[in-house]
Design brief:
- The radius of gyration is 39 Å and the shape is elongated.
- It has 24 helices and 28 strands.
- The protein starts with a helix and ends in a 9-residue tail after the last helix.
- The chain is of the alpha+beta class and 744 residues long.
- 44% of the residues lie in helices and 22% in strands.
Length: 744
Amino acid sequence: MKMDPETIQPLLEALARATDSISADVLAVDGGMPLVSWGSASSAGVKGKDITVMRDAIRTATAEVAGQAGNDPIEHAAPSGYTIVATKVAYRDFVGSICLVRLDGRSYSAKDRELLSVSAQLCTAVMEAGEITDQHSRLDALVTYVAAELMGVTARDLAETLFRVISELGRYFGADTCFLRHNDPELQASVLVDEWPRRLDVPDPDPLGIVPWDTEDPIFSMVRDQREPFIIRPSDGQLSYQERVRAGSGVPEVSLATVPLIHGDTTLGVLGLIHFGDRIWTRAEVRALRAIASLLVQLDARVAAEESLHHQAYHDELTGLWNRRAFVEDLNAVLEVDPRAPLAVLFADMDRLKTVNDVLGHTVGDNFIQAVAQRLRDSVRPNDVVARLAGDEFVIVLHEIASTSAAERAARRILDRVAEPLEVGGHAISRSASIGVVVNGDMPSTVDELLGNADVALLEAKERGGDSVVVFNDDLRSKLLVRADLELRLRSAISNNEMRLYFQPEFDLRDGRMTGVEALVRWQHPERGLLAADAFISVVEEINLSAELGRWVLEEACRQLASWKRTSPVPPPLVRVNISAGELISADFVGFVATLLSRYGLAPAELGIEITESTVMRDIDDVQATLNGLRGLGVTLAIDDFGTGYSSLAQLKQLPVDILKIDRSFVSALAESSGDRAIVAAIVRLAEAFNLTTVAEGVEDPAAVTTLLDLGCYRAQGFFMSKPLPAQVVLEQARNPGVPLRMM
């Protein structure tokens, strides 16, 4: 098979440059030197024996792909660090490969392999066209030109490139018009993609623009399933077609040559040439058109794949909305053009969606999210943006919004719309939402700043109980700065020895005797002074420091109790430490506790572990395994904030606990509230039934003490008896037992 290097080389050069390769070769399976090459290994720095090794590897790759049944590219990583990929080329008596070489050892991407496969098909088309010559010169040069033009085309520049290609085709063939049409199954019609030259006066409606397949014109009826080239001339009597062309262009009669764009069993469209008046279209011209049509089919498949990947990269899979990446890039582009663009960013989050998932299942939950997404999209204008960031979090950009009042009104309208019941999977579901709003102000803002400020406003809306709109303002800005400061300093607070433990005593209400102390963490902030846990614990959780801080608290509490025992004849009987669920189910937590007891010489009963009821109920299986391990050590176990976690009697019976700590919300107004007294009485009776001790939290007045004693709860802690104390003051309480608190 004869192969013209001047024809193939431009194709190889375009392929090598598009795939970042140092060389591209076409080789016969039984050949020595390449038949056609582009690039040079020696000029790329390959020397001596390495060139021989590379050539042997190229020949080996060629033999492997030539011997396989399919046409999939095969890649080889050579010992010298370069990478070879080859794909089969076969036409008549020629069998070989196109082979690419990279020096940096990187694998070829899926796109690179696709370009290589397309090039192999183009090479075959060039071989076929190279056998044909006529008055229009070598048609293989035309095919090579088109192949090079289409090699690096992306969806972004597709339209421009297609017009350039059909322009060159029209000029090359001396045609008056070249066109490309697409079959649209949804419209059930043939749609004009582009034409050269573009008509200056296009009728409205355009009889050549969208032509239904069920038209009376047999030519356009045929294009839906056209499989072979089709040619007509004025003498063929296709009057309806000639009349349609006359209506669309003013040309009385034309000669037409079309070839189908076929992918598998589907005709995607047609590529056509038109000559005004009569003309003979040669077999050679039609074959060249077919080769170019095959290139366009390959291009269409590649661009479709790229568009699909692009859509996946920029859209949320569940809702079809933009994802975070698309949202950020779009808003960045807006702010680059105008940093003070009048717009508002709304951060929306559904309230209590977990209940929907837990009760109705995640399928219904997903369908609900989809319905909410559509409702949000319907609630804004076409030029506004709605994106889903994650879970039930959405972000909205309202353009041309210049005031906080306008942004707040829009947010409240959206909030009301979202709260309306939705019919999902046979269920009427109604859920409110919370929205944080920030308006792009006089000072230029970045995307991160706008999102961060909207998020802070959203958190404030959540803290207000949900179903509310909060606009970011100076007060929230100060709160944001404080939080940023906390986050920055917390990361080094433990290593800088800034954490402190305070201890709140627990008393026997009958005789005022201290029965233990609860360790409470404080932070000695370098600038803001001593901070209670409420001021920073949420930040600790958000930046994943809970485990590190929790273990520090546990060890410091053990160390302090050991110190009290060495220095006082009357130390606190035990120290209690609150442990989060994450710490409790972390690796070897039981082993860590055992190590601390041994290290500080403590009896297991001198250490109490507290965990909140809500945490126990959420992770009961994992938590129970750890609690059983701690019970095996002899550590005292307590459920904190009891009465708020909705535990059942069956669940409570499973847990190896010793103490129920009654939540302060039932104790604070105990003397005045009959309801609270009934709840506390029920908890005390429940504890007695399970042989558990009760401890009341938040005792702040003598009336509560009297009521607790009457109800049978004899142990308590609270500000009425003692506030949390530094370690050095705790011993004073232990040395001086109080009088019976009923008498205080």
